[in-house]
Amino acid sequence: MTAVSVTPAPVPEPLRCSALAADLDSADFRSGPLRRLWGEEADDALGRGMREPILRAIAADDGALATLGRLLVLGMPQPRVAVTTALPRLGVEGLVALGLATADADAVTPMALLRPQSFVDADGIGEWWIASDLDEVALDGPLPADHVLGVGGASRTLAEIIMPIEVDRALDLGTGCGIQALLVSRHAGVVIATDISARALAYAELNARLNGVSNIEFRRGSMFEPVAGEAFDLIVSNPPFVITPRAEGVPEYEYRDGGLVGDALVEQFLRTVPAFLTEGGAAQLLGNWESRAPGGSVPFAGLDRVASWVPAGLDLWVIQREQLTPLAYAELWIRDGGTTPRDAAFTPLLTAWLDDFAARGVTAVGFGYVLVRRAPHPKGEVSEPLRRIERLAQPVSNVGGALRYGLAAHDLLAEGMPATLVTAPDVTEARHLLPGNDDPNVIELRQGGGFGRTVSVDPALAGFVGACDGELTVMQIVAALADILEVPLADLWADLEPRIRQLMLDGLLVPAEDAATEQGLVGSAGSP
Predict the structure, then answer these.
(1) Regarding beta strands 362-373 and 387-391, do their DSSP bridges make them parallel or antiparallel, or are they unpaired?
(2) Which residues fall within 8 angstroms of residue 7, CB to CB, at 6 or more apart?
(3) Inter-residue contact 136 to 122 (CB < 8 Å)
(4) Cα separation of 317 and 388, whole Å?
(5) What is the pLDDT of residue 122?
(6) Which long-range contacts (CB under 8 A, 24 or more apart) does 380-385 make?
(7) How confident is the model at residue 262 (pLDDT cuts 50, 70, 90)?
(8) pLDDT at 523 over 50
(9) In whole angstroms, how far apart are CA 527 and each of 136, 162, 407, 449?
């Protein structure tokens, strides 16, 4: 196992956090100013692990923003006098007391990164300051096992899919640096943030104090243990779902490895979470799942396995975004820990991963989003639960809004078809004709936002969608189409009705009375 960090955890002392926030604000330590300081190309290069372009761009700049950029964004020692000038309220001693740096008479050496992270949600544009452990670039080597990750790709993905809903109580399970708890706190009365890592909780609490957020409570423990007997309106989790061999010499990174075999952690979460949801409460998480064909038997698809973990009476929406072979998956996560094929440790790690997958007959590993909801029953009836299991590879946007609308449409359709529908504002129609033909042989409806779906339709359904402008009722449109197409009304309605329902669930058609509201949910992009 990789050794744990020798760097102490941060100390989230309130007054010093406030002083640091004031200094960062005075220096304009934000994404936009930093990007303008060293240029877009250099900023993009940092995302690929290269800091030299930034260093060259600000080599002659000794100002506060450049000093803090080198110290906190790049994780590089800076002259003590320059840091003292850049942090007039906190001072070097305060930075050291927070556990974010060490210092001697001449230099200040960072013990953590602190980077601005912008976001967009229903309330507008904002930005957090997020502290986390030094990354591979700053460490110039592999990560320690107790590494606390900053805002990475998975964090941004989860932030994009969280539904924009107001709730009383929310839970961020496995909070890490606390970014999800911060985002959810904007629309929740109280957020409980849990993690098995005391180090992660220290960072999360520091980040909350640094950003002036006071409605988050931090608790240490594994999985649901810290909230036993409680229920929540919204549960979000970016759990340590990475499938890792339980073998000697394989690093067990706390931020990504839950300590279980295969995809058992995701299974445990989904089997357990229903007991912690209020009526109408929802849980959203990211996860991996294995497709297996043990002993040459019939393959058991990963999505089928996920569906089997959630009781039939609950709403379930699973979206698989990608699928990797065992080899591609192993290489991805070995590199993520800072080990490359040039390193002697790479081949033993790869062998351990492939042997582990072979032992369970794993043929592929899927990645995606899972939404579980305890459906609301305002009138006491039990409606048919939503069960959507799908694969989506196309670009997506405003996924949280699309998920929220899909659930709302499901609830509405349980009461019957709305009287009047309108076409969502992001829907366009494409017609494909063979040369010399006047009639299209393919008609497609294309969704510009949400899940970016493309739906093939026939002339009858295309005509229906084209007439949904809020002026005529659903049945008036269908009756007119029956006359035009010279088909019995009952037959046409039997054909169109299930497909109209599906277009509503997909967000291409919305109730007329909700059109203005849902335009913001389904038709527009906007993600943290």
Answers:
(1) unpaired
(2) 111, 112, 133, 134
(3) no
(4) 5
(5) 67
(6) 381/414, 382/313, 383/411, 383/414, 384/414, 385/312, 385/313, 385/314, 385/315, 385/316
(7) confident
(8) no
(9) 27, 10, 19, 12
Q: Output the 3-class SS for 126-169.
A: EEEEEEEECCHHHHCCCCCCCCCCCCCHHHHHHHHHCCCCCEEE
β-strands 232-237, 277-292 pairing: parallel
The reported pTM is: 0.89
CB burial of 480-519 (b: ≥16 within 10 Å; e: otherwise) equals ebbeeeeeeeeebbeebeebbeebbbbbbbbbbebbeebb
End-to-end CA distance of the chain: 34
Tokens matching residue 1: 């196992």
DSSP states of 88-121: TTTHHHHHHHTTSEEE-SSEEEESEEEEEEEEEE
pLDDT recorded at residue 525: 34
Strand partners, 292: 300, 362
Question: Cβ-count burial of 104 within 10 angstroms (0-12 exposed, 13-18 middle, 19+ buried)?
Answer: exposed
Q: Which residues pair with 423 in a beta bridge?
A: 509
Is 519 a residue whose pLDDT tops 60?
A: no
Q: How far apart are alpha carbons 234 and 284 in whole angstroms?
A: 8
Do the bridges between strand 387-391 and strand 421-423 make them parallel or antiparallel, or are there none, so unpaired? unpaired
Contacts for 291-295: CB closer than 8 Å, 24+ residues apart = 291/323, 291/362, 291/363, 291/364, 291/365, 291/366, 292/360, 292/361, 292/362, 292/363, 293/361, 293/363, 294/360, 294/361, 295/361
Phi, psi of 435 (to 5 degrees): -55, 130
Residue 167's DSSP bridge partners are 188
